[in-house]
Amino acid sequence: MSHSEGIIGTLDEAVETLAAEARELYLDRHVPVLDAPPSPLSFYREYVSPNKPVLIRNALQHWTANNKWTPHYLREKIGGCVVTVAVTPTGYADAITEGKFVMPEERRMEMSNFLDIMEHPDQHSGVFYIQKQNSNFTDEFREIIGDVESDIPWGTEAFGSLPDAVNFWMGDTRAVTSMHKDPYENLYCVVRGSKTFLLIPPTDAAFVPYETYQAAKFIERDGEFQVEDDLDTGEVPWIAVNPLDPDLSLYPEFGKARGVEVTVREGEILYLPSLWFHHVRQSHGCIAVNYWYDMQFDIKYNYYNFLQNVNSVNRKMTKI
Question: pLDDT tens, 43-55?
Fold first, then answer.
């Protein structure tokens, strides 16, 4: 008997059935791998429409960045360019620290100085990561834009639009991206090193706990990092668990989430569908470029918001 044929008596059972049916009907146990880029039609039909991730190998062979983007080349080409760098004491930016949602200290420095830090990270206070979004690649790295494509053609055709943003990423292996989700279709391209993604599907959203936290920022003074409240931002809803070490005594429902892990290596692209929760680690000095395409705010988005609202009501009811 399928889950849909059973009798559902509570909201908890309803959301558990939703997640179970998604795993039974269409979600893969592992992220599927393609050995070459797909056609726009097959990419849309097999992955975009069902909202499923896929790893694509041999996808960036034509990029000159593959051979060019060495530390020597970057020093020569953009060493004097000023870039925005996120700095934290532990590598966790935009994450929960000391019971607050803490954002990194942002510093402006020449790329050559950043490369010096990458070569000798232990000689510097803090963990440094180029992670500014909002299309930082086209804003701060114009001199090397020609080393990659301005878009991913088969992705652009499948999504029906050009990228909304193109971002450049490079940093310390200690720099970790805390679990979150984005309202974008993401084509994540690794040029140097590797990135490891832990992914949780939107159908497991009921198991991913959120809390509301005071926003704050790291500030380094006299070699010591301090956490200062960001009163302008106020309170921020954020995921309350570290998926690598969740406190299941406090958030037992997270134990029902079923994540998949995938490592993206040089020359590979990960299609990360909109609204999938993801947590990211990387090798030291990893370089990546990602393309954000606007998601379609269609019935899938409506259903996802409905699930979030139902889950919020259910949690409030269980606390009464």
Answer: 999 999 999 999 9
The model's pLDDT over 272-293, given as tens digits with 9 standing for 90+, comes to 999 999 999 999 999 999 999 9
Classify residue 72 as left (phi > 0), alpha (psi -120 to 50) or beta. alpha
Claim: this prediction has a pTM higher than 0.85:
yes
